[in-house]
Design a protein that fits this description.
Rossmann fold; two-stranded antiparallel ribbon; alpha/beta; eight-stranded mixed β-sheet; globular; 257 residues
Length: 257
C-alpha cells in the first residue's frame, strides 16, 4: 500500500514539474499601447524563453468583429508549442482595448467607420512599440497574420502599410469591405504575399467576397472550405480540423515539421 502511495506521489510531482517547466519555457508580456489618438490598445506577446535566441517567427492574431483575443481556441498554443512567438491584439472597442485617451469607455457597437479606420494603424503602433521595448530581439522580420472577417481586413491593410511584409496572411470569413475597410487595393499591392482564405460551407457572403478579392491577389491564393456552419473565429470552435489546416499552412512557410 505504501509503495502504491509513493508511486502516485511521484507521478503527481512529475506532473507538477512538467507543468511548471512548460510555463517557464515561454515569456509572456502584456502591453497597453497608446494609439496615435491616445486610445489604449491591449496586446499580449508570448515567445520562447531561450537566452541565446534573438530572432523569432511570429504570428499576429486579429479577431472577428465583436469578439476578442480569447476566442482563438487552441490555435495560438499549438503554434507556441512549435516555437513561434504569438502576438494577440484586442482591436479597439473590443476586449480590454476599450479606453480612450480621456479614459472614457468605448464599445465597438458605438464606433463610427472613422474610428474603425484607425485599427490598421493601431496594429502597426503595437508592432513598433514591441520593437522599441525589445530592441535586441527581432519579431517582425519573419512573420504572418491570421485574421477573421473584420480582423482580416485590418491585417491586410496594416500589412500593406508596414515596411516588412508578412510571409502569408490567413483569412477566416473574407469580406471585401468591413466597417469601411476596403481590402482589394491593399491585396493588389502585396506582391509576394500568399493568402489562405477559409470559408464555412454555408457562408455564401464570404464565398462571394473570396471570389472577388482573389482577382486582386498578386501571389498565391488558396481556398479552403470548413465544414463549420459558423463564421470568423467561431469556426475554430465548430471545426476541429481547422486548427490543423491552419498550422500546416503556417509550417510550410516557416520550414517547420
Amino acid at each position: 500500500m505504501k509503495k502504491i502511495i509513493l508511486i502516485i506521489l511521484a507521478l503527481f510531482l512529475l506532473f507538477i514539474n512538467s507543468t511548471v517547466n512548460a510555463a517557464e519555457s515561454v515569456i509572456k508580456k502584456e502591453y497597453k499601447v497608446p494609439a496615435k489618438d491616445g486610445f489604449m490598445i491591449q496586446a499580449t506577446l508570448t515567445y520562447p524563453k531561450i537566452k541565446t535566441q534573438h530572432e523569432f517567427k511570429t504570428i499576429v492574431f486579429l479577431h472577428s468583429l465583436g469578439y476578442n483575443s480569447e476566442w482563438w481556441g487552441d490555435l495560438p498554443q499549438r503554434l507556441s508549442d512549435k516555437g513561434f512567438a504569438i502576438l494577440t491584439i484586442d482591436l479597439r472597442g473590443h476586449g480590454k482595448s476599450v479606453y480612450s485617451k480621456s479614459l472614457a469607455k468605448v464599445s465597438w457597437k458605438s464606433m463610427t467607420n472613422k474610428a474603425y479606420a484607425k485599427c490598421p494603424d493601431d496594429v502597426i503602433a503595437v508592432i513598433d512599440y514591441i520593437k522599441d521595448d525589445l530592441p535586441k530581439k527581432r519579431f517582425f522580420d519573419d512573420w504572418a497574420i491570421i485574421g477573421a472577417d473584420f480582423g482580416a481586413n485590418v491585417g491586410v491593410i496594416a500589412a500593406d502599410r508596414i515596411d516588412t511584409k508578412p510571409k502569408t496572411i490567413i483569412i477566416l470569413s473574407p469580406t471585401v469591405i468591413a466597417r469601411g475597410l476596403y481590402v482589394p487595393v491593399s491585396i493588389a499591392q502585396l506582391d509576394n504575399v500568399d493568402f489562405l482564405s477559409i470559408t464555412s460551407k454555408d457562408d455564401a457572403f464570404s464565398k462571394d467576397a473570396e471570389k472577388y478579392i482573389r482577382k486582386f491577389s498578386q501571389g498565391g491564393f488558396v481556398s479552403y472550405e470548413s465544414q463549420s456552419n459558423t463564421t470568423g473565429v467561431l469556426m475554430l470552435k465548430n471545426d476541429e480540423e481547422l486548427s490543423r489546416v491552419i498550422t500546416e499552412w503556417i509550417y510550410q512557410y516557416f520550414d517547420v515539421k
